[in-house]
Amino acid sequence: MACGKHAGMRKARRHALSLLLLKTYLQNRIDNCRCGYFICKHYLSGKFELLRFIFLITLLSAQVICAAQSQFHLASGRIDFKSEAPLELIAAGTSTFRAVVDVTKGEFAIIIPIRNFIGFNSPLQQEHFYENYMEIESFSDATFSGKILEPVQYSENPYTITLKGQLSIHGVKKQRIIEATCTWPDRATIMIVGAFQVPLADHNIEIPRVVFQKIAEVIDVNVTATLKPKP
């Protein structure tokens, strides 16, 4: 009897030990799974945060690139004016000015330092133009800025665009609507050519009576500008 009892106890202990081992094994597996879950969770969370960060940086970079590509800045150009009066011809031009066209927003801006005009018939004519007519000590720049009414987009053929904005000369602003021809030599180059007239009276430019026959009341202006994305 004693032997059978002890044998039963040993069997029960082995069974209990097996159950304990099984419980411990299962608990370890559960703990490992929990640990793995949290590791995976944090890893994936960090990974997704990194991916989100990379995505945001890429998006912002793309926006900056698009913004840069949408703005075309002056690469080269020429602005000439001519006053053809009965007693005298005044003609001068400049290649030193700044211009930008935003093809996405349909906006433009031009600034022309008056002092940069050259090509007058004589130094005296240039002096009179600078000091008596344009008064460059007070009004050093002419500007034109506003909206382009049509979409500015790549085309193999020239097309007409309409520039509407404020033309400021001699410190006086006037709203002007000017037509120009837009040509794309390639997808990264815009060429704009336009011609318009400027009545001197519109900008309070007075013509002294003694030289009334030497300067026209309306000035002819021609503009050529080649623009490219800023590097």
The value of Rg in angstroms is 39 Å
CATH topology of the domain at 70-229: Lipocalin
Sheet/helix structural class: alpha+beta
| CA(first)-CA(last) distance | 101 Å
Largest sheet: 8 strands, antiparallel, barrel
Count of runs of 4 or more consecutive helical residues: 2
Give the name of the CATH architecture of the domain at 70-229.
Beta Barrel
Helicity range of the residues?
A: 25-40%
Assembly level: single chain
Element-by-element helix/strand order: HEEEEHEEEEE
Instruction: Find the count of extended strands (DSSP E, 2+ residues).
Output: 9
Which CATH top level class of the domain at 70-229 fits?
Mainly Beta
What is the general shape?
A: elongated
In CATH, the homologous superfamily of the domain at 70-229 goes by the name Lipid/polyisoprenoid-binding, YceI-like
Strand order in the sheet with the most strands: 1-3-4-5-6-7-8-9
Q: What are the low-pLDDT stretches, counting only 5+ consecutive residues below 50?
A: 12-26, 35-40, 50-68
Strand content: 35-45%
| Average pLDDT level | 80
What does this structure look like?
By secondary structure, the chain is α+β, with helices and mostly antiparallel strands. It has a domain at 70-229: Lipocalin (Beta Barrel). It contains 2 helices and 9 strands; from the N terminus they run αββββαβββββ. The protein has an 8-stranded antiparallel β-barrel.
